[in-house]
């Protein structure tokens, strides 16, 4: 049913929970997991304090991708890792449009004013993706 799953990750605990589901689905369908880390170039703190730079975000992404690839490999699932720069939800949609037939991603479960003010990459992807999106609520309630 699914040949290529896109697992966009930010390295959070919520994403780690979603990865377990992505690996399980990929194993069940014999699919490849495309692990995508998007360096958010819209991030307002880049360069402001000198501590957060595109380079440090890219390094964090590389480590996150290695961990996800290792977990997929341990389960016998093929994984492709990719780092992109840009607006996360647009980059996820573009990548999915070219490479995936299912997106598996975590959500923080924000509600109310937080969700309205901060927005949600997952919510934007769910509303606009051309492929099915499997969301996994992670973390503590």
UniProtKB/TrEMBL annotation:
Tell me which domain of life the UniProt entry assigns to the organism this sequence originates from: Archaea
User: What InterPro entries does UniProt report for this protein, alphabetically?
Assistant: Rossmann-like_a/b/a_fold, Universal_stress_UspA, UspA
Against Pfam families, the record matches this protein to: Usp (PF00582)
Q: Name all UspA domain ranges.
A: 1-137
PANTHER family (alphabetical): STRESS RESPONSE PROTEIN NHAX, UNIVERSAL STRESS PROTEIN UP12
UniProt similarity note: Belongs to the universal stress protein A family.
What's the protein name? Universal stress protein
Species name: Halalkalicoccus tibetensis
